[in-house]
Amino acid sequence: ELFYNPSLLLLLGFILIITLVFTVAANYFSGYLIPVAMGVVLISVLFDSRLAILINIILAVLAGVIAGGEFRFIVVALLGGLTAVFSVSRVHQRSDLTKSGFYVALANTFTIVAIFLFLTGFRLDYEIIKDFSISLLSGIGNGLFSAVMAIGLLPYLESGFGLTTAVSLLELANPNQPLLKQLLMKAPGTYHHSIIVANMAEAAAEGVGADPLLSRGGAYYHDIGKTKRPYFFIENQLGNENPHNKISASLSTLIITNHVKDGLEMAQQEKLPGIILDIIRQHHGTSLISYFYHQAVEKEKNEDVIEDNFRYEGPKPQTKEAAIIMLADSVEAAVRAMSKPVAGRVEGLTRKIIKDKLNDGQLDESDLTLKDLDKIADALTKVLSGIFHSRIEYPEKELKAEIERRKQLKNGVNHKQPAEKDISS
Fold first, then answer.
1. Which residues contact 179 (CB under 8 A, 6 or more apart)?
2. Virtual CA dihedral for 77, 80, 83, 89, nearest 10 degrees?
């Protein structure tokens, strides 16, 4: 993918050039200051760790050449870069990259100490101690400087090249994000629905080679437009009267479909990444709102009802992630409405909904295969069966008797049965 994408190649080249410029500048002070870790961190976050390891080896050798061909600088740059790669693999937010700097500084410290002990044969004099101190401070400064520069450059590289990193997606999944807090406060039913859909989508994505983080992040935001008119969506009505009962089927359809437009506007205002906007736009595709369509047909009693007027505007899902969220969204809503969601019925309904979406052409542009759809059905069923599992139904009469017995025991009432009469005489 990298070699067929000019934008990614340009980004990689830009990172390498920036790193080499800092390498030349740092070498004027000390070879231990050369910030190979900065470039490696950026490549690891923006691309992947395998490419970062390869680039780290190349940059470490170049750093050694620029620093006069001394092997010790290559070793420090190589081990510091490898430490950077493994430390950023567990980053959950942008500020965590600072920890990577401390890990690199620590790795540089141990490496420099080991090199000096090896080269000096444990001899100590003023010049050795002076040289060692400068080298050690340079190695520590290298780690911290690399982290600061990576944190500073990352948002500009993301926006400039239109990329959304794993770090960005993890930050978007934070419940304290303004749009998610607004969803929780204004549409709690939709919020709960979105959390379940996120778990379903992530599990399904892992099974078909899609991006689990993007699937989870997109699911969190796919219905944020419902905060504009929360009570027109059944999950937020909480037993109250359904407002759709008082309006026409066509107006209900307009309100329902508008949650996609409203969500896009809200997401754009908060400057959410383009791939999240695409999921919001595509997660219903051109699906038919069948309930209101059939309601309109029954009311009109003629063929004047145009089916396309009761469909979402689309487009259809263009990626695996958008298609997975479409399926998870539909399946979760249907299973939630089931009276007895036992595993067999959940799986049957899940596969029926997937088949209906497939037959309606909603998945035609998503690159999902039939084998993928089978795996998605299994994953969605497994998650939903764990969430909506059946519970033991206790008989009301026995339950009341047990509660009464416990109350009487608490009040000290003696429940001993009276002794039986002696009937032998």
1. 221, 224, 266, 267, 270, 272
2. -70
User: What residue spans define the domains of the chain?
Assistant: 2-163, 168-387
What topology does CATH give the domain 2-163? Arp2/3 complex 21 kDa subunit ARPC3 (1.10.1760)
If 0-12 CB within 10 Å is exposed, 13-18 middle and 19+ buried, where does residue 107 land? buried
Question: H helices within 49-96, ranges in order?
Answer: 49-66, 71-88
- Mapping DSSP to helix (H, G, I), strand (E, B) and coil, where does residue 157 land? helix
pTM: 0.81
Contact 173, 215 (CB under 8 A): no
Instruction: Please name the amino acid found at residue 39.
Output: G
Question: Tokens 């059905």 identify what position?
Answer: 377
CA separation for the pair 287, 258 (Å, rounded): 14
What is the per-residue pLDDT for 423?
40
Residues 257 and 233 sit within 8 Å (Cβ to Cβ): no
Helix, strand, coil shares of the chain, percent, nearest 5, are: 75, 0, 25
pLDDT in tens, 225-238: 999 999 999 999 88
Q: What is the pLDDT of residues 293-316, one digit of tens each?
A: 988 888 876 667 888 999 999 899
> Alpha-carbon distance 120 to 126, whole Å?
13
Helix (H, G, I), strand (E, B) or coil at 177: coil
Token readout for 243 is 């407002």
Tokens describing residue 25: 């500048």
CATH architecture of the domain with range 168-387: Orthogonal Bundle (1.10)
